[in-house]
Design a protein that fits this description.
The chain is an alpha+beta fold and 497 residues long. The chain has 3 domains: 40-156, Potassium Channel Kv1.1, Chain A; 207-325, no CATH class; 328-493, Apoptosis, Tumor Necrosis Factor Receptor Associated Protein 2, Chain A, CATH 2.60.210.10. The protein is 37% helix and 21% strand. It is built from 20 helices and 18 strands. It has helices at 2-7, 21-24, 41-54, 73-79, 81-88, 106-109, 112-121, 131-140, 144-156, 158-163, 167-176, 180-192, 194-198, 208-215, 225-245, 250-265, 275-281, 285-289, 291-305, 459-462, and strands at 60-64, 67-71, 99-101, 221-222, 324-325, 331-336, 348-355, 366-374, 378-380, 383-387, 390-394, 397-399, 403-408, 416-428, 431-444, 450-453, 477-478, 484-493. Strands 6, 14, 15, 17 and 18 form a 5-stranded antiparallel sheet that branches. Strands 7-8-13-16 form a 4-stranded antiparallel sheet, with no helix packed on it. A hairpin with a 2-residue loop joins strand 10 and strand 11 (390-394). Helix 4 (73-79) crosses helix 5, helix 11 (167-176) runs antiparallel to helix 12 and helix 17 runs antiparallel to helix 19 (291-305). The longest helix is centred in the middle third of the chain and has 21 residues, at 225-245. The chain is flat, with a radius of gyration of 31 Å. The N and C termini lie far apart (91 Å).
Length: 497
């Protein structure tokens, strides 16, 4: 037999399977080769599935509440570091037992069969309602591959979770268990889509500490500060309802609510409200109820607008820092339709104006802006540059980038500082949302009138290869045919106070 095998080969080279079979699969059909890679992995998976479904040769039983799951020590130990320690190390009382009782949270009990099936088959059904329970089991039993799958699912379905009242439970779990990337993505979604999130039933589940931290952020996206005040007031009303449902005495509820109002409303920037809005606050039931707290804040706002704050060093400078306000005073919508059909190096130009002060006494200060958006790359044509040494030829250059150029049309003589926020919209599951925010702080003056942002979003998102152009749908495009680029440009003045 061995001689016959040797005879079929042209030389004595090693005929053992290569170390990386997948790399050589493409050559396995060569008729002149005596080597062939056999991929029988599907059959192996079938055997593993049969072991799980038919409960053959089980040597350990996992009991959870009133349910019992038959399993195999080998599979459990190979898949989970915790099961390996539990079933293989003498220090654990379970290592000799054939029946092991596990304590799981109720929501984890409901998906334990899915978790166990994954250990055998590598397949699992993940939804927005069960992903946290599955992730909790993966974290508890250190099944790293499943943890990665769950986190990847969450990172791609945050708008869906928000639309189905799961976002705050996702955020809470991610923060508690150290999944920082997903936690940041959830927090960003809340900050950049705050009004939509505040109108969901899930809003009442926002933890006070996390909520307070979010309200301190400058990049919180909101129509104006008055709208934010109303959202926070609604959250406070929901918290009072929850406290009463817990059966607390009224004096305990009142004490807790006072602490909540003072800690949460401390982050509202009353100076960013107009005098008319500040005057309207006094009519609100919440303000009347806690008037001793709110009157000082409202007085601060009025003093700011009437210019009587100069020299006061005890005031938190954050009070004079505008957020990303989407009202017409500071922002404009830029919409480019049929993006995929635009020619290369196309430029869309927009002209608009914004107020250059948050103070009511300076409401007449307005700046004119020109915005150029290059969604299909930038082409610098060949030109001649005249310098004192003579004339230089500048060769053409093509930059594959999505560029936004902002020009101040008539800048002041002195420097003025602004924060520019560029909001990019996306679409997921029919839900339009702010997908990404790009922020820049910059100074404008007569010699520095232009701000340029390259790589606003990945060039390939709007310009996929020809082979994929008719199939690919970029998450950065919206509309019924997902072929519209929507940008919200916000320019807010940064106070020198």
């Amino acid at each position: 037999m061995f001689r016959a095998f040797d005879a079929c080969c042209d030389n004595d080279e090693d005929v053992s399977p290569p170390k990386s079979p997948r790399r050589d699969l493409g050559n396995s059909s060569d008729e002149n080769s005596c080597q062939m890679i056999i991929d029988n992995s599907e059959n192996v998976l079938k055997i593993m599935r049969n072991l799980y479904y038919h409960k053959e040769m089980c040597d350990v039983y996992l009991k959870i509440s009133n349910k019992e799951y038959a399993a195999h020590r080998l599979v459990l130990c190979a898949s989970s570091d915790v099961f390996q320690a539990m079933l293989m190390k003498p220090e654990w009382t379970e290592w000799r037992e054939s029946k092991i009782e596990l304590k799981e949270l109720p929501q984890c009990e409901n998906v334990f069969h899915l978790f166990l099936e994954y250990l055998y088959t590598g397949r699992i059904l993940i939804t927005h309602t069960n992903v946290i329970a599955i992730l909790a089991l993966a974290d508890k039993y250190i099944v790293k591959s499943l943890t990665r799958l769950c986190l990847n699912y969450m990172s791609k379905h945050i708008p869906h979770a928000a639309n189905h009242n799961q976002l705050f439970s996702w955020l809470q779990y991610a923060l508690n268990c150290g999944h920082k990337e997903v936690a940041i993505m959830c927090q960003n979604y809340i900050k950049w889509n705050f009004e939509a999130v505040a109108n969901t039933p899930d809003f009442s589940n926002f933890e006070p500490e996390i909520f307070s931290n979010l309200l301190q952020q400058n990049d919180l996206l909101i129509y104006n500060e008055m709208v934010l005040f109303n959202c926070v007031s609604r959250w406070l009303d929901l918290q009072e309802i929850r406290l009463k449902q817990l059966g607390l005495e009224q004096n305990e509820v009142d004490k807790h609510m006072l602490n909540l109002v003072e800690s949460i409303m401390q982050s509202i920037r009353f100076t960013m409200m107009s005098p008319a809005e500040l005057a309207d606050l006094i009519l609100l039931p919440l303000v009347k109820r806690y008037s001793s707290f709110f009157l000082d804040k409202m007085a601060l706002g009025m003093a700011y607008h009437f210019g009587t704050l100069k020299g006061d060093k005890e005031i938190d400078p954050v009070q004079f820092t505008p957020r990303l306000y989407t009202c017409d005073r500071y922002s404009t919508i830029l919409s480019i339709e049929k993006v995929r059909d635009l020619p290369s190096y196309h430029v869309s130009t927009f002209v608009f104006s914004t107020h250059m002060s948050t103070c009511e006494s300076d409401s007449d200060k307005i700046s004119e802006w020109t915005v150029d958006v290059y969604p299909k790359g930038v082409w610098f044509k060949k030109c001649l540059l005249i310098v004192w040494q003579g004339t230089l030829e500048v060769p053409e250059e093509i930059k594959p980038t999505v560029r936004l150029s902002l020009t101040c049309r008539e800048p002041k003589k002195e420097d003025f500082k602004v924060r520019v926020g560029i909001l990019l919209y996306g679409l997921q599951g029919g839900v339009q949302h702010v997908l990404q925010v790009v922020e820049k702080e910059c100074y404008f003056n007569p010699t520095n009138k232009i701000m340029v942002v390259d790589d606003l979003l990945p060039f390939e998102e709007l310009n996929p290869p020809t082979s994929k152009s008719h199939k690919y749908r970029s998450p950065y495009l919206i509309g019924s045919d997902q072929n519209e680029l929507k940008i919200n440009l916000i320019i807010t003045p940064l106070s020198s106070l």
